Here is the input.
Amino acid sequence: MVWLFAIATGLIVANLYYAQTLIGPISKATGIDPGAAGLIVTLTQIGYVIGLLFIVPLGDLLENRRLIFISLLTTALALLAASVTSNANLFLFAALCIGLGSVAAQIVVPFAAHLSKPETRGKTVGKVMSGLLMGIMLARPVSSVVADAFGWHAIFVLSAITTAALAFLLRAKLPQRRPEGGMHYFELLASMWHLLKTTPILRRRAAYQACMFGAFSVFWTCVSLELTGPHFGISQSGVAIFALVGVTGALVSPIAGHRADQGKSRSTTAVALSLGVLAFALPLLIHSSRLVDLGVLVLASIILDMGVSANLVTGQRAIFALPADVRSRLNGLYMALFFMGGAIGSSLGGWMFAAHGWTGVLWTGLAFPVIALCVFATEKSGVSSAIGT
Here is the structure.
């Protein structure tokens, strides 16, 4: 079941990122202005945030398997729409709907936590999140390779078919999980504000990951534009290889989850945030030949993905240590808050690249983990262990 959860979350969340390395050809084909090309990714993330706030909480109210099935069919239809349009407005609306339906991944993750034993919950969540992060990172090279061979439309057709097939597979394989409920939908939504006010660990972990995911989005929204530009002159297949190397950063997720189970969240968080700073500092400090610059970017991508992965799993372990009857709402809030950081990062990245080039992107990306470290410095020693994170 853990393997099924991991593969499912990876395939679902990949839908958010297929367009990330294709914003150049998509913006040309649909007539989107280069300065606004970041909207292709930003609107998908905004749709995801909306779904996290208004759909994921239903996991505490409705039968989970059915909710996942409906969300995935919605995503498949949106992907199909994106594949057949060359109109900018229609494509952007489809991108929003892709994000909205892909929140099924965040109904699957609490499902996995619910089925796991408390003493191994962090490790289980780490494995599932490895699948999710592998989906995020593999989406970029897969979309680049498919686009190189068949055009950018093809990846959306392929994903629509895969997502629809996954919907029926999960409906057949997942056990039923019907929460006790006891609330109406609007009471459920109102309770989320109360949870946010009364759960300081949620606010703190969301702040850390919002900054890290903002940095992640800045980097990966713009790095393909830099790699295919005049300095590097790399093809879409080359971009795919570059993105594939960055996937290795996701392998730290189970390690981070295991350390969280051992009560070592504070040190893991410090290392994760520091890796975020290092990832942007390296290309800012090292300038040499084309080959050396490319090697530095590869290293930076791995380091950044390691930091984001470790911090994400550590945060989710903290959230899933809280009461099970509010787990979907807490996870929805956590993911929504940090995806807001991602949406800000992708929109800022596209604008900074158009206005100030790659150097402006690097300075923007560096600001995010620096802010996170400043917030982390205010965390009192011993707080993490006191709350079981």
